[in-house]
């Protein structure tokens, strides 16, 4: 009896020692994760998905494999979201803006000029408000794991530099498939056309649309400089990406497997924000070197833009709920003190 107990104790001790090294006793099964995204492999998004894949494989001792599928090869964001909800695809990363049709609270992040800088964005997205909005995905069949940075959006077009608001008049501007964006740019006088990102390059090339708006990083990685002459620094909205999982699939995972994915999504978030900000800091010079003509929206015009766009705030507040709207404004006021 004594011998048996000692053996068990010894085995337990060895197990405990091995556990952190070899994943002893961790409940991990072989899994294949199809992870879709819209940008090209050589982009901040592609690099972060690759980092995520490496983390997951390493932390599951190679049992969980991530197949990263970029360039919207699995379809645009809205199509992938449906595949996740139905369980035909496991994971994706894409704009929160394309989720508004599924979870109206996501419209909070479409508020023009909501964040003044990335620090504010990080604090709110990674804090209780970000979590609250993310949790709204679950009843819709999606699990949100982390917000990554798409970034502050800037205008490009092939017609003329936007020096004043009126320069947007009649410009056919592609917007994301989202009512806040549609309303915002209509309010500014542009002829706003919703299109999936995967159709954007060719729409610009064939002049189906004159312009678009996206962060520097994307203008660079998607080679929009080949088909857009003018870039106007407007920083009109901070746009997050969100990593989501099919809830149908997620619910069948063990706690250990869920933790590996959740931790890796957060580690990749930190990697991605750093990468995005480093690349973003150099991107403007790169875009100029590629031939883009860059102008800053003059402060007075930026203020007019801000003023006009504050009109859509009431709609957003109604959509996301007054409580959430107020909580966000209070949190921002506190951060700015
Ligand atoms: C857009 C977005 C896209 C992202 C990406 C496909 O303009 O900013 O760049 O949704 O994940 O559509």
Automatic annotation (TrEMBL):
Protein name: TRAP transporter substrate-binding protein
Record-linked Pfam families: DctP
Taxonomic source organism: Ramlibacter cellulosilyticus
Molecular functions per Gene Ontology: carbohydrate binding
Single GO biological process annotation from the record: transmembrane transport
InterPro entries (alphabetical): DctP_fam, TRAP_DctP, TRAP_DctP_sf
GO CC, alphabetical: outer membrane-bounded periplasmic space
Keywords per UniProt: Signal
Signal peptide segment: 1-25
